[in-house]
Amino acid sequence: MKILKIAIIALLLMGFSNLKSNEKSDELKNKILKNIRCLICQGQSVYDSESEFSSSIKLIVDKKINDGLEEKEIYFYLREKYGDWIIYDPKLNKNTYILWFLPLLFFLVGGAIIYKKIQKKNEK
């Protein structure tokens, strides 16, 4: 009888820990899917999209998580297969310099134009 109680408690604990790990993997999966761009849809993440491409990426991410890969490893795999464009937050490298520095350049040029206009207005 005591062994039966211990077995039941052990099964309940295993089920509880399995439930916790499923919740963690679901959170990780959703986090990754929200940071991956659907290459078919305009401006949608894979998480929000219902395209065939998104469905296949969801399956790939799920399989990679079940295989034990970490978030960075999954992003690396997707970058290798689809390019840097698939990730919403691309790494800074020679191919993405323009993505990172173009907004700064626009800000500086815009500021210089506004500064010149204010200077001309004050001279009159």
UniProtKB/TrEMBL annotation:
Membrane is among the record's keywords: yes
Database matches in Pfam families: CcmH
Annotated CDD domains: CcmH_N
Residue ranges annotated for the CcmH/CycL/Ccl2/NrfF N-terminal domain, each copy included: 20-122
Signal peptide, first to last residue: 1-21
Keywords: Cytochrome c-type biogenesis, Heme, Iron, Membrane, Metal-binding, Signal, Transmembrane, Transmembrane helix
Membrane-spanning residues: 97-115
Gene3D superfamilies noted in UniProt: Cytochrome C biogenesis protein (1.10.8.640)
Protein family membership: Belongs to the CcmH/CycL/Ccl2/NrfF family.
Protein function: Possible subunit of a heme lyase.
Protein name in UniProt: Cytochrome c-type biogenesis protein
Organism field: Pelagibacter ubique
